[in-house]
Amino acid sequence: MAFHPLHVIIAGGGLAGLTAAHGLLRAGHTVDVYERHDTVEHRQGYYLHVNPMGGDALERCLPEDLFRLYQATSRVNYVRTGSIVRDEQLHELSSQPPLIPPKEGPFPDTGVHRRQLRQILMARLDDVYHAGLGVASFAQDDAGVTVTLSDGTEVRGDVLVGADGINSAVRRQLLPDVQVVRTGIDGIGIFGRTIITEELQAQLPALLDEGVQMIVDRHGSRLLAATYRPRRPADEACAEIAPDVPLEPVEPYIMASCSVPPGTEIPPAEEWTLETAERIRDAMLAAIDGWHPATRAIIAAMDVPSMFAVPFGFLDPAESWEPSRVTIIGDSAHAMLPTLGMGANVSLNDAAVLVDRLAEVGRGERPLEDAIGAYEAEMRATAYPILRMASHHDENFGGGALVDLAHAEPTA
Questions:
Q1: Distance of CA 176 to the CA centre of its chain
Q2: Angle at 384 between CA 21 and CA 97, to 5 degrees
Q3: Is residue 16 a contact partner of residue 80, using CB atoms and an 8 Å limit?
Q4: Which of 195, 224, 393, 408 could staple 339 via S-S, CB 3.0–4.6 A?
Q5: Per-residue pLDDT averaged across 39-49, rounded?
Q6: Distance separating alpha carbons of residues 158 and 5, to the nearest angstrom
Q7: What phi-psi label fits residue 18: left (phi over 0), alpha (psi between -120 and 50 degrees) or beta?
Q8: Quick check: 334 and 345 in contact, CB under 8 A?
Q9: Secondary structure of the chain in HEC code, one letter for each residue
Q10: Please, are residues 180 and 31 in contact by the beta-carbon 8 Å criterion?
C-alpha cells in the first residue's frame, strides 16, 4: 500500500517538538519546525529525569543511533528511584516510589543533561529547523492550514502542531479559554549547578547519590538536589555511535534549587547580573545555616553564572474540544509543576503518540481529523491526571512528608 505523506508544521523547537519532528520524518512525512528563539542559549534547566515513558517515546521516534547516543550520555543508574525527603542533617524522613515503574535492564530509570539531549534531538534537522521564527497565528480550511510566522510570512501545511510551551500562541488561538495559573513551589525556584570536583566529592555522603532529594527543615527552608554523572564522556560516545553529532562536554554535577530567606529580592530574569546571582547564592547559604556540611558545600561551590530563576506555572486545561488540523503537545497542552518529574516525560509521550496516529493517516488507515482526535483523547487521559497530581506538590513529593513538616511545630 502506498504511503501518502503529510506536511506537518511544528511550532516550537523544544524537546516535544523536536522528538515529533524526528518521528514524523522517520514515518515518511515532511516537517518544518519554527522556533521563536534564535539561539539554544535560553535557560530551561539542567538535569532532566527521564523515566520509561519518556525513554520509550524517544526510542519510537529517534533514529536508532541517536537513541543509543541518548542512552550512552544519560546518567548512571540511581540506587533508588522515586523521590526522597531528608531533614537538614540528611536523616531520611520519607520516600515515594516513581509514578512510572522502572524497566528491567541497564536503563531502568535515568536522567540526562537537558542541553545535551536537545543537541541530540536537533541533529540532522538543519534543513527543517528554522530558528528565530515563531508561529504567530493560523487559519484552517478543508485542504490544510495557513500559518503566519512572526516575521509576517505565510507557510502552508496539512497539520499544525503547537509545541510552543506554556505561553503557546497556537493554544491561545485554538483554545482561548484555557488559563495559565502562575504559581510557585515553596522554597524552590532558583536553580543552579555545582560541578562535582574531587574536593567536593570528598564532602558528599554516598546517600546523596541515591536519587532525587528534597532536604528540608522545620522552618520552611528547602534544598532540591539531583546528581548527574554521565555513563560515558560525550566525545567518546559520539565518536563511537554518531560521529556527525557534536555534543558539548558535561562534567558530573549536582543540580540544586535552594530557599532564600523571606524578603530576599529576586529581580526578573532580564535584570539579573553576576552580582545578583552572588547575592542570591549568599542568601541561600543564610537560609540553610546550621545544616549538614555537605549541603552547605554544594551551595557554596555553586557555579554562580549558572544560576537562574524559574517562573513556575501550570495550565487549567480544556476538558475536550473538537479535533481539527491543528493540535497541541507538551507544555502547550498540559504544562505542569515539576513535582513528579513527569512534565518532560509526558511531553515526549505526546510526540510519540501523535506520530503513531499520523502514520496511520499516511497509510490510509484512518481520516486525518479522526486520527488527531484519537491522539488528543489519549493525551488528555494520560496527562491530565498527572497534571492535577503535580499541582499538589507537598502531598506528592516524598509521600507527603512536606505536608507533615508544614504543620509541625518549629524546633529551636
A1: 24
A2: 95
A3: no
A4: 393
A5: 70
A6: 10
A7: alpha
A8: no
A9: CCCCCCEEEEECCCHHHHHHHHHHHHHCCEEEEEECCCCCCCCCCCEEEECHHHHHHHHHHCCHHHHHHHHHCCECCCCCCCEEEEECCCCEEEEECCCCCCCCCCCCCEEEEHHHHHHHHHCCCCCCEEECCCEEEEEEECCEEEEEECCCCEEEECEEEECCCCCCHHHHHHCCCCEEEECCECCECEEEEEECCHHHHCCCCHHHHCCEEEEECCCCCEEEEEEECECCCHHHHHHHHCCCCCCCCCCCEEEEEECCCCCCCCCCHHHCCHHHHHHHHHHHHHHCCCCCHHHHHHHHCCCHHHCEECCCEEEECCCCCCCCCEEECCHHHHCCCHHHCCHHHHHHHHHHHHHHHHHHHHCCCCCHHHHHHHHHHHHHHHHHHHHHHHCCHHHHCCCCHHHHHHCCCCCC
A10: no
Taking only the tens place, the pLDDT of each residue in 211-222 is: 889 999 988 899
Mean pLDDT of 123-143: 97
**Bridge partners of 192?**
256
Domains of the chain, residue spans: 7-406
Q: What digits encode the pLDDT tens for the residues 346-378? A: 999 999 999 999 999 999 999 999 999 999 999
Residue identified by cell 528511584 is: 81
Nearest to 328 by CA among 168, 155, 95, 110: 168
Query: Which of 272, 350, 262 lies closest to 311, judged by CA?
Result: 272
Q: Measure Cα distances from 103 to 107, 112, 121 in Å.
A: 7, 17, 23
| Average pLDDT along the chain | 91
119-133, 326-340, 386-400: range with lowest mean pLDDT: 386-400
367 versus 82: the higher-pLDDT residue is 367
Residue 403 confidence (pLDDT): 55
How high is the pLDDT of residue 339? 78
**CATH number for the domain formed by residue range(s) 7-406:** 3.50.50.60
Length of the chain: 412
Distance CA 365, CA 312 (A): 41
Question: How far, in Å, CA of 398 to CA of 68, rounded?
Answer: 32
Taking a C-beta distance cutoff of 8 angstroms, is the pair 256, 299 a contact?
yes
- Report the first-to-last Cα separation within the chain, whole angstroms: 74
Cα–Cα distance, 278 to 44 (Å, whole number): 20
Which pLDDT belongs to residue 411?
Answer: 45
pLDDT of 100 reads 86
> pLDDT at position 96, please?
83
